[in-house]
Amino acid sequence: MKESELRRCQIHDWYPRFKPHTIKTLFHPLSDSFIRYLLGEPDPHSSADPPRFLLPRPSSGLDPLPALPPASIPPPLSPVNSDSDSDDDAPSFPDLEAAVTRSIADLGGAVLPKLNWSAPKDATWISADGSLRCTSFSEIALLLRSSDSIAHDLSQALASCSDASPDPSSLPFYLALRKWYPSLRPEMEFRCFVRGCRLIAISQREVTTFYPVLPDRKDEILPLIERFFHEVVREGFGSENYTIDVYLTSDGRVKIVDFNPWGAFTLPLMFEWEELDEQGFGAQGVEIRVVEGRQGVRPGLKTAVPYDYLDTGEGSGWDQFLKRADEEIRKQAEDIGNDSKGG
Ligand SMILES: Nc1ncnc2c1ncn2[C@@H]1O[C@H](COP(=O)(O)OP(=O)(O)OP(=O)(O)O)[C@@H](O)[C@H]1O
């Protein structure tokens, strides 16, 4: 993937061109100090290491801490601002907070936050209602700071590009606040695959569930998306290969949710990248795939927990935890052995 292709998928890049066809969004440039705060990096002007779940200090006292997550989900590793010491160390970003508070009000009181590419979908376990809905700056900060996807946007985004510029710090970061829609229907979201500027495939976006309505309606959905692609997207996007997520409203209009690069971290959902990459694929026209029955659902492409909860492979957080536990047990066994020899 080329860096220019990845850059075109940044929401602040594509939004101005597709504004009438997408969700209303307001943007805030992020300062280096806020980016350091999101990454949990120490402030060079302070000797304290900020704990990972430290929230920014509200500038007015009017922005309450979000409710603690329900008891059924794992608690944060360290308490949220539980003591006055950590509160003293908490940074504050009064200008950004004031601007974000104004934008939330302008967008109707609730927003979905994202950075240049990603929303903090893997961090919803820490939010009060388990969703990406935010009504305050501190809720946004908590989600962003708890998300591996956001950390990836901030520190690794260019790593998968074949021609990445030597200075990734030249990348400006934005907080995008999108008007919150409480009743988006997951079965009406689709990922469209565009190769060589041609729409070749469409997949149901939420593939862990069977929606009985979809197999019956897919032949009616395909031409709606195809027409939208030809009339609105094809000339306007600029890349040859990419994916676009769209939402179909109940009156048959198509709205853009997001653009993603071809391949790399983008999930192929009901397809495989190998088949989408085959030269002949799509020659017979656009292929649409949906989950056709309860047996056809795809296993948990879960993104609502940190990667460490999912990744149990060599070198993962779990792997290291288990190795440390083994080591601890081995030491205890040795100590017991030594004690009993001594006794
Ligand atoms: N404004 C909104 N209101 C309510 N839900 C939304 C809104 N925008 C997006 N969503 C939901 O959140 C999901 C994630 O949003 P989005 O695609 O922007 O995040 P992302 O991190 O770029 O995801 P991906 O990389 O998987 O495409 C969407 O698939 C959609 O279901």
From TrEMBL:
Residues 47-93 are annotated as: Disordered. InterPro entries: CDC123. GO terms for cellular component: cytoplasm. Pfam families: D123 (PF07065). It comes from the Eukaryota. GO terms for biological process: cell division. Residues 66-78 have a biased composition (Pro residues). Keywords: Cell cycle, Cell division. The keyword Cell division applies. PANTHER family: CELL DIVISION CYCLE PROTEIN 123 HOMOLOG (PTHR15323:SF6), D123 PROTEIN (PTHR15323). Belongs to the CDC123 family. This is LOW QUALITY PROTEIN: cell division cycle protein 123 homolog. The gene is LOC120253640.
